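Office hours follow-up: a student asked to see two folded examples consecutively, so here they are.
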Amino acid sequence: MRYLILLLLFIVSMTVLAEPLSEPVATKDAEIRQLEKTMARISQESQATYQQFLMTQELRRNEMLESPDTIPLNLTGKSIPIPSYEDLMRRRQEKNDRMERYSADLDRLYTRYKELESEREAIFEKIKSLERKTTEE
């Protein structure tokens, strides 16, 4: 009976001593999982930002190719009114405003994309270092 009690005490003491050793590994695993979730979220946001950048770039490219001074062609043979000078100036100004807005949006999106990519890279490095520490223990 004494041996049984001693054996149970020994087993209990071993499990108590083993728990603190396995606990940091469990917290590191939890931290790695949390970092991976964060990295996935950042990657999705980065991809969405890049897609917005490409769409805005295409809008800007199309705007550059389009002339604000074009007068619509009339293939029916009927005469069409020529736009007034004020209308032409307004169209030019609107085009310039759109071009400036597209350029500002492109700058903003590019900066945000670079921020997200550097943040993602930092998280990836942290995950790699945690994994190395986990395997070393």
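And the second, which I mentioned at the end of office hours:
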Amino acid sequence: MAHAVAPRLTKVPEIRAGDTVVVLAGKDAGKRGEVKRVERPALVGQPYRVVVEGLNLAKRHTKPRPKMNQNDRTPQMQQGGIIEKPMGVPIGRVMLVCPRCDHPTRIRHLQLETGARVRACGHCGQAVEVKGA
């Protein structure tokens, strides 16, 4: 009888808000953008997702509807139309772009003299950012 192996939880993602990334796969492959936020997976075993500004846009068609607030006597109309909303991209489909050498790169770790660990570019070896700075 085989035992079911629980999926391993991933460690904290190495791509953070404010990083510039390039999309590796999908309809926006090859495009660059800035990460707005990193979303945690809803279920165990699913990947982290990153929301990249201007990429992976979904269109939502909305009707004009009355919007009531508790302190309003007359309802305000919510505008209808087509709204473009950026959706999350799985973190495995994006790669960090080094701000110094401008190449998509894998992330290495360096330990500074102070003992702090920082993310570093795999090509040029320069620190991408210093934690807490």
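Two things to take away from it. The chain has a mean pLDDT of 84. The first strand starts at residue 20 and ends at 23.
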